[in-house]
Design brief:
- The protein has 315 residues and is an alpha/beta fold.
- The protein has eleven helices and twelve strands.
- A hairpin with a 2-residue loop joins β1 and β2.
- 45% of the residues are buried.
């Protein structure tokens, strides 16, 4: 297991708000969780392009287990508005603290990196920026516009924060017309206080519902983690709430504990249970479902979006 309570700059801990917590138990990972270390030439080339453009990726910051596979194919999820989040979710490996000012050149740099990587589909996410009046919505829109101008054939997926108490923020991002709008619920309502304390479950549902109100033809997506101590009936209720908001695409993956200071893994869910959840989700009406131990929001995002569009195409 990676240790992330480390020093990243001038002796500052990566997670100061977690540094004094007691160590949590760490379960031994089962065989189905194992992934290969990233060592390919494609991985190195993707890393070089990201570094040259001064960008952050959620692949690195969140310690995604699929980084080797995705970067080998030159697929990366850009994390805009810096590498420091204003929240301190118990599951997350992204650094917490006071963020710096927005980089006005970032939209251009993201567009340039998209072009250099030759991306047919790009995913753009961000840290939470509760310090900004619009939560960073206008910056999201600027990034979408820059990519559209430089790479008109690239489809764009955004994975946004909840824009909690930022009136009109969702509308700003939706007006920029990303090809798919993703906002993750992360877990079931009963776990929000301990897992996602800065967020509100029904506010997150409302984000997805609002996108569909603005444009009923838009594609929406959301995801949750399992293994945090949730009950199966709670997961099924989340599915119903998402379908009530007309969400098209659901992802379900295994929670992996970044360090002993983070929320513990209560259980490693076996692959057959993921298959069962996938079947239930399809029965509830989702157009697309991705459910497996290593499923993440951006994993195979391009291929999945192409399939999602094909499902809606006229026969």
């Amino acid at each position: 297991m990676a240790v992330v309570i480390d020093t990243v700059a001038a002796g500052r801990p990566r997670h100061p708000e977690k540094a004094h917590r007691p160590d949590q138990p760490a379960l031994r990972k089962p065989d189905w969780i194992r992934v290969k270390a990233p060592v390919s030439r494609g991985y190195a080339e993707t890393q070089r392009i990201v570094r040259e453009n001064g960008l952050h990726t959620v692949c690195e910051e969140a310690g995604c287990p699929n980084i080797g596979e995705c970067w080998e194919k030159k697929h990366a999820t850009f994390m805009i508005m810096g590498d420091t989040c204003t929240r301190a979710c118990a599951f997350c490996n992204v650094k917490t603290g006071i963020p710096g000012a927005l980089d006005a050149m970032e939209p251009r740099h993201v567009a340039e990196a998209t072009e250099k990587l030759g991306l047919a589909h790009v995913v753009v996410t961000s840290v939470d920026r509760d310090d900004l009046d619009d939560g960073g919505a206008a910056h999201f829109a600027a990034v979408i516009g820059a990519i559209r101008a430089r790479c008109p054939n690239t489809t764009i997926e955004v994975l946004t924060p909840d824009f909690l108490r930022k009136d009109g923020a969702v509308d700003i991002v939706a007006a920029a017309k990303p090809d798919i709008f993703n906002h993750n619920l992360e877990t079931v309502p009963s776990k929000y206080l301990t897992v996602r304390p800065g967020a509100r479950y029904f506010a997150s549902i409302r984000v997805l519902q609002r996108v569909k109100e603005i444009d009923p033809s838009s594609f929406t997506k959301s995801g949750i983690m399992v293994g945090l101590g949730e009950e199966r009936n709670e997961v099924l209720q989340v599915m119903d709430d998402l379908r009530a908001a007309n969400v098209d695409f659901l992802t379900i993956g295994q929670y992996l504990q970044p360090s002993r200071k983070h929320h513990p893994v209560v259980r490693f869910v076996p692959p057959d249970e993921f298959k069962a959840l996938e079947a239930v989700a399809y029965a509830k009406g989702f157009a697309m479902v991705s459910a497996s131990p290593l499923t993440r929001s951006s994993h195979h995002a391009g291929e999945d979006f192409a399939r999602l569009k094909a499902l809606r195409a006229p026969r």
